[in-house]
Amino acid sequence: MKRYRLPILLLSALALLILCLTAGCQIQPENASAASVKKSSESMPTPQIPFAPRQYVCYRTNQSVMINGRMDEQAWQQAPWTESFVDIEGSLKPKPYFETRAKLMWDSSYLYVAAELKETGVLATLTERDAVIYHDNDFEVFIDPDMDTHEYYELELNALNTVWDLLLLKPYRDGGPAVNAWDIQGLKTAVTVQGTLNHPGDVDTGWTVEIAFPWAVLRECAHRATPPQNGDQWKINFSRVEWQTEVKDGKYSKVIDAATGKSLPENNWVWSPQGLIAMHYPEMWGLVQFTDAVVGSQAVAFVPDPVDSARWALRKVYYAERNYFMQNGTYTSDFAELGLASTSPREFVWPPKLEAATHQFCAELVSQDGRFRLLIDQEGCLRQETAGK
After folding, report:
1. Closest by CA position to 319, among listed 48, 89, 41, 44
2. What is the distance between the alpha carbons of residues 278 and 172, in angstroms, rounded to a whole number?
3. pLDDT grade, residue 52 (50/70/90)?
4. Which of 33-42, 155-164, 301-310, 324-333 has the lowest mean pLDDT?
């Protein structure tokens, strides 16, 4: 299969992304004879937990890092761990029965990710690159550099160090394709198993992962220079898929549901909970703040950005408009019709300005000082602009 570099894909997807690239609210004229929209009693799935993304400070390393899956450099020992992973639905579900945690560092060439996955029976079967890796137990990384929830990266790998790297032009809920025919040029990955792989006759400890993401690739979706500047924040999340298994004929196999004849559903464990069984809600991912401080040299505090709460307030407008469209066959410019609870995001004027047509809407939120604005539309792209641009 032919492999593609990101700029080519972005050019080919320009028509899909044009609404996200234009300045201000741009409601386009619609054909009055366009086909009517079928109404639905269904609603768009939305997170069922409070908005509280986890936070992490990513330190710089001045030591060379060998990607071997062992995390044996001093810099890794000094880098802080994330909190232990929780169920993807957060407090709505029990805590995972195996511990998972991760850590990050950066230097001038790479963003480094390491993870520790506790496991009493380490197994993996898939060996072909870009296979659907979550059919095995796996570890996954999601990165949205500019936090607009479009144009983001996904990487999955199993205990055999088989990788699946994807580019998402936009989430599946917004009609976005996953581009499989694309590789992260210069990606480095390694896995070390603490035990014996695919051997049910003993008890393992788990497996560890190391990944190096080249800044040269990450800058494509960041739309700015990389590495990030001191204090910059990105949306990032980590996920672990864990299947329920048993030993049959001396081999691991997935537990079958007697009622359906299919495998029992997988467990999805994540760093920052999503509030629903869906990783492709980037607004719920954790916040990673980059610092120029060298790992181990000093403690740097995470600085909450009030813009993130404003993004969430505008995202709820998007959810409400999508549901309104499903029920009424059109979007609305009347904020009161959306039935949203009163809110007051810090440093922004509320409620947002709304423009709408049958198949389009745009919501605009302006900062109290008038210097910039946030916008979201039916495509789900949430962008920030300088006012008057």
Report:
1. 44
2. 10
3. very high
4. 33-42
Evaluate whether residue 25 is within a structural domain.
Answer: no
Amino acid at 264: L
Alpha helices in the chain (DSSP H): 6-12, 14-21, 74-78, 215-222, 306-328
Q: 270 pairs with which residues across the strands?
A: 86, 239
> Which pair of structure tokens corresponds to residue 385?
């602009």
Cα 116 to Cα 119: distance, rounded to the nearest angstrom: 10
Asked if residue 331 belongs to a domain, the reply is yes
pLDDT digit string (tens) for 252-283? Answer: 999 999 999 999 999 999 999 999 999 999 99
Question: What's the CATH number where 229 sits?
Answer: 2.60.40.1190
Instruction: With respect to residue 236, please indicate whether it lies within any of the assigned structural domains.
Output: yes
Tell me how many domains the chain contains: 2
| Same domain assignment for residues 290 and 310 | no
pTM here is 0.93
pLDDT for residue 67 is more than 50: yes
Q: What is the dihedral of CA 66, 71, 75, 76, to 10 degrees?
A: 140
Name the band, by pLDDT with cuts 50, 70 and 90, for residue 8: very low
**Are 367 and 257 part of one and the same domain?**
no
Show Cβ contacts of residue 117 under 8 Å, excluding neighbours closer than 6 positions: 98, 100, 139, 206, 207, 208, 209, 240
Structure tokens at 123: 């197994």
